[in-house]
Amino acid sequence: MAAIDPIDPTEPNAPIDPGDPIGALEAHRQALTGHCYRMLGSVADADDAVQETLVRAWRHRDQVDDEAALAGWLHRIATNVCLTALAQRQRRLRPMSLAPAGTPHDPLSTRPAREWLEPIPDARVMPMAADPHERVRVRERVRLAFVTALQHLPPKQRAALLLVEVVGLSADETATTLETTVPSVNSALQRARAKLGGLGEAASGAPLSASQIGLVERFVSAFEDYDPDELCALMHEDAVLSMPPYDLWLRGRESLREWFRLRGGGCAGSLLVPTRASGSPAFLHYRAGDDGAYHAWAVIVLELRGERIAEMANFLDVESLFPAFEAPLVRTTRDG
């Protein structure tokens, strides 16, 4: 397979031949979205990178020798698109990466949305016709903890790890993609694995057990009834609450209880619409407004550990995130 040539942005699109397999490229969109999300930590940035990847692939489609080589070739293009993007921006992180846990009484300060890691809808990264084992594998690799850890790796180290361990390219193919040597790739892999510390294997994307399903249902009831004591009864003793774009994050059941009782009181009367995001149970959180409607407030992602909630991550950038879930920003009734 030929090397991937740089694309001149002024080059006109090649004429579309009805006999050419456009659908064959589109069939890889979910897998490419997952790859670009792991590289970039943002749904919108991943979408932009995938679109650029498919445009480049279409222009240079004659470089693919056979169908079996297509997935790897597309991921090579996507990796280079992401590396270019990462050269122009800082990594995306979560509040827990920036400062120690705070208290429920600390002032609230914010950072720009571009600095925060975002959750991604599971449906956006699940390949078409994925079997149950593949679904578990995909969910494991979009978990918030795993993607956060990836953001701490230098971009090329991150790319090497993903290309070899997730995409399945050889060290030689990866070296060609990254314009480096095989020993450099192997060294990058060793350093990346050491930094991740086995986190990827520890995160489970398996379906929820019956008791965990019951736990999530109890969470919905407790939140919509807004019962702080019941909410905290569902949490681990060391549970974490985060709310980007706010820097503040909390650890510990009693800190969370105090937050829910005091500053979180505006969530009384809320509506939670179930979904799945970043391989975990999630909810589109709508708060009741004075106008009688329900207004988008957050995407809530729950991380479960055994029979309790280990983390409640609230992502408040609804203008960006709710469209990614194809969800309205306002619901006139609880039923829609």
Give the integer mean of the pLDDT values.
90
Largest beta-sheet characterization: 7 strands, mixed
* Overall radius of gyration: 21 Å
Poorly predicted runs of 5 or more residues: 1-20
Helix content: 40-55%
Q: What's the count of strands?
A: 7
Q: Gap between N and C termini, in Å?
A: 51 Å
Strand content: 5-15%
Helices and strands, in order, run as HHHHHHHHHHHHHEEHEEEEHE
Q: Helices and strands: which structural class?
A: alpha+beta
> Outline, from the CA principal axes?
globular
Query: What count of domains describes the coordinates?
Result: 2
Keywords:
2 domains, 336 residues, 45% helix, disordered N terminus, Nuclear Transport Factor 2, Chain: A, alpha+beta, 7-stranded mixed β-sheet
What does this structure look like?
The protein is an alpha+beta fold and 336 residues long. The protein has two domains: 181 residues, no CATH class; 122 residues, Nuclear Transport Factor 2, Chain: A (Roll), CATH 3.10.450. Helices cover 45% and strands 15% of the residues. It is built from 15 helices and seven strands. Strands 1, 2, 3, 4, 5, 6 and 7 form a seven-stranded mixed β-sheet that branches. Helix 2 runs parallel beside helix 4, helix 8 runs antiparallel to helix 9 and helix 9 packs across helix 10. The radius of gyration is 21 Å and the shape is globular. The N and C termini lie far apart (51 Å).
